[in-house]
Design a protein that fits this description.
Six copies of one chain form a homohexamer. Chain A is 43% helix and 17% strand. In chain A, the strands form two sheets. Chain A has a four-stranded parallel β-sheet with strand order 2-1-4-5, with helices on both faces. The first copy, chain A, has a four-stranded parallel β-sheet with strand order 7-6-8-9, with helices on both faces. In chain A, helix 1 crosses helix 8. The longest helix of chain A has 18 residues. Chain A is globular. The relative contact order of chain A is 0.18. Chains in contact: A-B, A-C, A-E, A-F, B-C, B-D, B-F, C-D, C-E, D-E, D-F, E-F. Chains A and C meet through helix 5 of A and loops of C.
Chain lengths: 249, 249, 249, 249, 249, 249
């Protein structure tokens, strides 16, 4: 199968970190098609950027999803997830959604580490919108942009390990999630020093997307996720317009 | 004061229904600046359209909000509300948010009428995201596009009256909200035949926006609603880009 | 319009602090009628006092509300709010209710400062009863009676500023509420040193009461807020008895 | 032990129905002291009456509680419960609180029958304030004043049986509560025709009050239920004033 | 009446601590029948042990409940409570359930002390399953096995007193619960040094069980707590098999 | 990989229905090891049977899980799931847990069909314990034992189709779950006549178990899902005793 892994930002560096992790995580026979956004924010870190990137998610799937069996949004706000799930026929998962649902099968209390105080409320809103807020026991915040730089980040690693252990010790976390597409591959590196599972959301996203594709369930023909038939949109990305015209994947 | 009333859709007919109601609702001395979107959906009725219209909300405020004291999003999904509240300094309210908060002061149990089964989950998600789901006692759905046509709609009026009374009788609703910008002005017409208050969300939105403007509170300088300083966005509407560059209202 | 601002306590000093702030906050043309209770607690600070003051709220509106267009309960427990909303035809708001609903339009996470550990549970119960508990991110308690003394309170101001900033830093509060009618006017003084909006509940109460009056919605004729017709009460304040007899405002 | 059973209304007929049921329910050796209010509403059926009756609850306990070991509020809104629990040292329970907590040990899903559509929201607010809303699976409303008349009410009995069975059939209720002090003794009469337990709240209240008294726990010396020391109240019932002065039971 | 007090563990030492406290707590005329499990865990301290002990609860009631009027599960996870409530006709209460429901009548905010970090999530799940999570304000954990040793434990007592006071001071707890059957009798010893009531769950369990027995309510004949008629079980404890065959208490 | 699919009941007919569906659902290279319980209930349909079957789940994994990479509990109450997740090192999923989490990625509102009124509360408790109750929009109940008989069940199929469509029409369900291991394979048959996806929980369970195994996450070494080291259990199934002694899979 072919799995579209889309970075709705315009940050090739993040796509470059996500793609090899996605490839390593995929089942034998799964081809990863990794694409990067062409408009909107460089990196989503605010509410307004997130709003702009929703269209980017739709455009990327509309343009690259044709021969794919599923899509995984490699943006940790799961930007545009519900809209994509409605507009397209192929299954779509968000990396944070996939990570959270996977974590639900690994422990009861989920501890989360986010990058930056500013985005914490955004993640909380995402998680509440999934109805999963009661599963989250506590949060920790790292203020660091090191993850976006190339190379190893031993100091950041140590900080993440300390925070994860603190979540276990003080808040009884039984499974850990570290947000951020740029964190792809990092959990495996930290795991030996943390006594509970750390979910890599990109890995979970790839596997959950494969899982959804394997179910071969039909596109909904009723309800809020049915295809939005007969709607009129103007002055939008041509690929999105084509999708509204019924020519999307 | 000047109040920007923005219809993030491209539907002049809806703006045409909203504007006079907003003008009638405003305090003496308030000037209503009513604008309509130039890209995205004709009328938002699906998740994908709503995602596209978030940028429309940002573009309209960026372009027309300069001399305004507050903005009211005249789209009943409150499309782009949080993003606008972050990107801009002027106060922004959503019409449904304003209607709900106003309803909270008029009764305990809020009954809601929506147009179309398909959008009911979208409204529920909006209301849950405000933390107000527990105030809503029940929903009713009208399947009718009559509201978008010009002229009187006595049959639709009768149906709405019947549903509102049913909410009161069967579900103990103590205050009623009818969703949809196109419903501006309708509640006043129905009110004599319904024994509990019906909130007109456009009217509430105008008054709440005036109220926020009157408080003269500062733009947050911390947290997720502070201005998103130093962010990089590309290939977006020039007015939005200018707003990110700190030149927005 | 005339707005009744009622202090259900017997504390002229609090009324004296509330009234000028209410006047400054009101729209041009709004006359503030400030009244003080004549029985019950000097200052509400306990559950039993709050229970006694419910009748005081009813008596004050019954006696002074006749020519008023709306009433605002200037007691931060919103004492007697629902009862007043039922018994009278004029719109009634509580200052904390108004402050909370206003705060909902200024940020996502609300931080609250209360005066005294003992009353914190009372405020929590009030906020839960509004269905707004999920919007409150954290609480801080000041143990000080300085606010009830005349003159400036620079030490208390500094403590409040420190607590507000602590709510922002540690709990990601995006908007702050300081409880207590006696705090009227204080938020404006503290605001320059706090990076997120601080809502003055008396100011919000005045503006929300004006807003409700402007809507000219009918008194409910059904449900738990309809007038309690044909009820028999004995040995109560004559103004309250008159209100039950249908002669209230 | 002596158990004060207080009807905060001025309705001797209700006290007359409650007292013998309380006596029959009490343990050997428990003396029931049944008293009726002397001011406020004849029968509480609205929000404003309930507010007035809070003082009645305090006055009754202050006046009659001296030689009692516990008090049970025989008003189904549990009027004044928290205030009484704070002001007095003797244990106090509300009949609906006691009925609900007892029902929690008899089944998972609680079905409730109320008298009159108008009061349903009042009961919901009471139950939400106890944190027990999630245990209630459904409500039914009877519109009948028959219960306040003397003699048998076979028609009302049949309606109550039908509603209780409907709660079991349609809403999977596993235990039933019928609200209203005037219903004292009725559940036992209906029980043979209902396949799940029906809790008599007066019976549960008596037994829970006895239970609390048997624990001999100290009056809280901290928190919102500690005695409100040093508070000043004016122009209130002398017995209440004495209680505030530390001379209450 | 006869009250079966069952320890589903195989720990005579715990039964030895529970039984005298239960006897002292019981009403005059109540005989306590204290029994200990014969299979499964020595002491439940993990999820797997708790799962095994559910059958132990059923076996103990099946074998010893015949001449009893009620049963109280003296295991603080209330192991097997719902199953027992279904399989048997006699009333059954769990000690933690009883302690929590009793605490609800003594204060608003409940603080809980548990023994060991590991079991905290188990208690949280129990309390959430009762719908009472919102009543719990905070938790403290003691890491100590001293309670299982004979004799006095002054150091443990001091630690418990400190934690209880910390719950009062920092988290505004208004009533305290200390989990664990082995804690029977300890709360009374700590009470003088803690300013809010501490509920002894064994005492509460005995009294609530007596209370349920006194109500003489019928076994449900419908719903999920009706007797499981006509079910087939194999290779289980003979007493359990007999109970399924309708020969249980 | 080898996936243990365990039926904790003693019902070979159910295992016989589950096994081929599990095999068809599995990835290439996955071997399904299907086993059936040897003690406890024939078919779990009550609380007491469910309690007994928890040990059966533990015994089956202890005995058959040695060479397996993951286990899937093919009992729709997910009987013993958390206990198994603690006692064993191999990943364990419950079929209903897996179905629900998968459904979360297919729509917002989940509609559920259960077999028998009596078990509905049991499923609700399971789903609440996962924190997913807010995702479930409505329930329907089928009273039929046809599913346990061999051969086709066209009448039952028609009833299920009608209920699923009713959930879509009346309650806006966007994805459907039909509970019961015996329903394995049925959703695919009904799907063409239902306009939203129907999740086959056995299929989802197989795929989610494969997914978990692929993550190769470590067994928790802290918290309530760490191995229960040094615990003493007596008179239990020897395989379970061996697992407690550290010799389990």
């Amino acid at each position: 199968m072919r799995l579209l892994v889309l970075n709705s930002n315009n940050s090739e560096i993040v796509t470059g970190k996500v793609a090899p992790v996605a490839r390593a995580a995929a089942s034998p026979g799964t081809e990863i098609v990794a694409v990067t956004g062409t408009f909107g924010p460089r990196v989503i870190g605010t509410r307004a950027e997130n709003a702009l990137a929703e269209a980017s998610t739709l455009a990327l799937i509309a343009r690259h999803g044709k021969d794919c069996d599923a899509a995984m949004i490699a943006v940790s706000y799961d930007t545009g997830l519900r809209a994509a799930r409605e507009l397209f026929s192929l299954p779509v998962v968000g990396m944070t959604e996939a990570g959270l649902l996977t974590a639900c099968m690994l422990g009861g209390r989920i501890g989360i580490v986010t990058f930056g105080r500013r985005v914490l409320p955004l993640y909380q809103e995402v998680i509440e919108s999934y109805g999963l807020a009661s599963r989250v026991c506590a949060w920790r915040v790292v203020e660091s942009a090191a993850a976006y730089r190339a190379g190893a980040h031993p100091e950041l690693d140590q900080e993440l390990i300390a925070l994860a252990n603190d979540l276990v010790q003080k808040d009884f976390a039984e499974v850990i999630i570290i947000t951020g597409a740029v964190m792809a591959g990092v959990p495996a590196r930290l795991q030996p020093q943390v006594p509970v599972p750390i979910v890599d959301c990109v890995v979970a996203g790839v596997r959950q997307a494969e899982m959804l594709a394997s179910l071969r369930l039909p596109k909904p023909r009723a309800g809020s996720f049915a295809f939005p038939d007969g709607r009129e949109v103007i002055n939008v990305d041509p690929a999105i317009a084509a999708a509204f015209a019924g020519k999307g994947p």
